[in-house]
Design a protein that fits this description.
Layout lengths: L12 E5 L12 H5 L1 H6 L3 H14 L5 E3 L2 H5 L3 H23 L10 E3 L4 E4 L2 E4 L5 E3 L4 E3 L4 H9 L4 H20 L1 H11 L4 H21 L9 H11 L2 H5 L13 H11 L4 H5 L6
Parallel strand pairs: 1-3, 3-7
Antiparallel strand pairs: 1-2, 4-5, 6-7
Helix pairs in contact: 5-7, 6-10, 7-9, 7-10, 8-9, 9-12, 10-12
């Protein structure tokens, strides 16, 4: 994908590395974060969910933070891509909010390209979680070493697959800005038996929003990009990742077919079509 080089005046980026310190969890984003472990390692998400809160309380997390955005963004190919992608996402969603009369609602997220462990407003995080978004500090957390694992999972090393991951986490930021995230969490608390199904809706909408970003920038898409995105979406479907070890009732992110379909829906470039995904009574 042909994105313009990043401008550090237009993005908020930092890099945190593992070190001493104890995080205190506040319980936000648990359902989103808990399932990431099996995305990379095939762990049982139900077991992971049961330990997330304890991990947030006890994980030894970041002691060093680099806030020199130019240096952070130029530290590797993956970092440069992430900064280019973040700038494009900011521009696209800022324009989208303004076009719909909500310019005052839009706020850029921060991006933390951490390594090892990290302190977040949602508690302690680690590379084992994979990329995640914390609504409490409105920050996307990515250890870029995940992208090498993604390449193995998706069967390609294309840049669009990596942009898709970033755009998906940015989709969770959009959910925070629109209030969808807090609404769904409230419903999950009142309907605990539907918590996983509601989590699936959140993830599929984030996939759809990732597609919206790409759809609104079709002039920058290169041959093979869409196929790379679809392969990545299919590779991280619950049914593919768990290989039948987790029942459909315990899925938290959706099947490969559902995730691919949500991404394809978003590629039409109309974010309003994504809104219907999380409309629950």
């Amino acid at each position: 994908m042909r994105l313009n080089p990043f401008n550090t005046d237009n993005i908020k980026v930092r890099s945190s590395s593992g070190g001493a310190g104890k995080a205190s969890g506040i319980g936000c984003g648990t359902i989103i974060i808990a399932a990431i472990g099996y995305f990379v390692f095939g762990l049982d998400p139900m077991q992971t969910a049961a330990t997330v809160e304890g991990m947030q309380q006890n994980t030894q997390v970041s002691g060093t933070t680099n806030t020199n955005e130019e240096e952070v963004c130029n530290s590797s190919q993956y970092s440069r891509e992430a900064c280019n992608g973040l700038q494009s996402l900011n521009q696209t969603w800022s324009r989208t909010f303004a076009e719909q009369g909500y310019s005052d609602t839009f706020k850029q997220p921060e991006l933390d390209l951490f390594s090892g462990n990290v302190r977040t407003a949602c508690g302690g995080g680690s590379s084992a979680m994979g990329p995640f978004y914390c609504p409490a500090d409105q920050t996307i957390y990515i250890d870029t070493s995940f992208y090498d694992q993604l390449a193995k999972m998706a069967g390609n090393r294309g840049d669009f697959a990596r942009y898709y991951v970033l755009a998906h986490e940015y989709g969770h930021h959009i959910q925070t800005l629109t209030g969808v995230s807090s609404q769904i969490r409230s419903i999950q608390q009142s309907r605990p038996g539907q918590a996983n199904q509601l989590s699936v809706l959140m993830e599929l909408q984030a996939d759809c929003y990732a597609g919206v970003w790409a759809g609104k920038n079709r002039n920058l898409i290169e041959p093979g990009d869409i196929e790379e995105g679809m392969q990545a979406a299919a590779a991280i479907g619950d049914d593919t990742l768990t290989q039948g070890r987790v029942s459909k009732e315990n899925f938290t992110h959706g099947t490969s077919a559902q995730r691919s379909q949500a991404l394809r829906l978003g590629l039409q470039g109309d974010d309003r079509k994504c809104d219907a995904i999380t409309n629950v009574g």
